[in-house]
Amino acid sequence: MSNSLTTNNQTEDKGATSKPLLKVEGLTKHFSDGGGFLSGLFGEEQRVRAVEDVSFSIRKGETLGLVGESGCGKSTLARSILRLVEPTDGTVYFKGENMTALSGEKLRAQRKDMQMIFQDPQSSLDPRMKVGPIVEEPMKAHGMYDANERETRARELLEKVGLDPQHYNRHPHAFSGGQRQRVNLARALSVNPDFIVCDEPVTALDVSIQAQVLNTMKNLQEEFGLTYLFIAHDLSVIRHISDRVAVMYLGQLVELADKEELFENPQHPYTQALLDSIPVPDPRKAGTRGVLEGDVPSPIDPPSGCRFRTRCPKLIAPAGYEFSSDEWVNTRQFLRAVERRAIEPMNKSSLEAQFFDAAKPSGEAGRIVDDAIAHVANDEWTQASELLVTSFAEQSICAREIPAYEVSTENGKSPHQAACHRHRDDVIDSRQK
Ligand SMILES: Nc1ncnc2c1ncn2[C@@H]1O[C@H](COP(=O)(O)OP(=O)(O)OP(=O)(O)O)[C@@H](O)[C@H]1O
């Protein structure tokens, strides 16, 4: 693994009790971002670490939901599984076969059993073709059935996905967004796949239509024995369709659990923040219950240790200092405010009153905080930020080790994994939990 401070592998799914249909081990995808002629010459080409050491498996007939903010690597993970992009490292086993070792005809044959549905039903349908031939296209490409059988099958599939078989001769523009996504479903099903990657398939649809399409997908899953990897950033969609849920942050899986378990007993601060960001229906309350602090950092230079630590509201206090729980909470909030320069100009005593009124650390930590306060009062933001980050944030175990732990399950059968150091009893005492 790339990080020399690593002591644990990342979240590894041991959840599949029956033999998995799909098993992903250490899957990694880095993109070269070009970096220009000079950087290439000096060997400094930067890499976008879109997916890093991801492992999980999916049982036959199961739906694994994959959730995370935009840019966290969900689509790249899906494309790497299907080898639509070439993985940098790792292995994908599909029906026991190592997909990453296949090429040519064998890969093509295996791909027939692994289909993908995309977010935008409009652009994935050729406007010049009629819907029937669109559905028949994959069968043709794989040399399945003769022309008459393909047409019969296409008409049957249109009906199965909730469309009128008479629509065989219509063009895509005659259909609504939801109907077009149904055409995509029929097309994916035409080659009788075992596994479908659904990449935000209902995101572009009206909310009223989403549930109908999701229900159709559920029915088809049962009827055809399908297994889904279902990508969405909308947790209500994930809750509707998934059996288990994987949460992805900045290229890595941070939590993996049965659906009920994840929603009722979330263990990773990122999952908790995502759940807290779900809009509250009560109009008297603010739009959301809570929001994630700051932006997702660049995957070119992701934070060491736990990648969420730079935004985590539960960053663990660094060892080597005496912090009470309140003192550390205040210090952490001050650190984040300094990093974001989210403090109005004020003198030292006002800063102290605003951030450390109730509890200010003493000893060495107190001296560092005093120096940082003095820097901020003098408008020396960079010095203040560097002092706090190097003294505290980067000394936290969250920065020094990659976390991966199994936690006790309260609402599910499968193991519950959460890549957070807060589950390691030897590094955190009860007062900080
Ligand atoms: N071909 C590429 N070359 C360079 N970087 C890429 C490429 N494709 C994706 N990335 C980068 O990889 C990271 C992950 O992108 P990806 O599209 O997989 O995320 P996502 O979670 O699916 O986001 P969204 O929900 O917005 O689709 C992003 O930083 C993105 O800019």
Poorly predicted residue ranges:
1-17
**What's the helical proportion of residues?**
25-40%
* Gyration radius, in Å: 25 Å
Order of helices and strands: EHEEHEEHEHHHEHEHEEHHHHHHHEE
- Could you say how many structural domains there are in total? 2
Sheet/helix structural class: alpha/beta
- Ligands, deduplicated: adenosine-5'-triphosphate
The first-level CATH class name of the largest domain: Alpha Beta
| Quaternary structure annotation | single chain
- CATH topology category name of the largest domain: Rossmann fold
Distance between the termini: 29 Å
The CATH superfamily of the largest domain turns out to be P-loop containing nucleotide triphosphate hydrolases
CATH architect. name of the largest domain? 3-Layer(aba) Sandwich
Largest sheet, in brief, is: 8 strands, mixed
Beta-strand portion reads 15-25%
Count of helices?
15
Mean pLDDT comes to 88
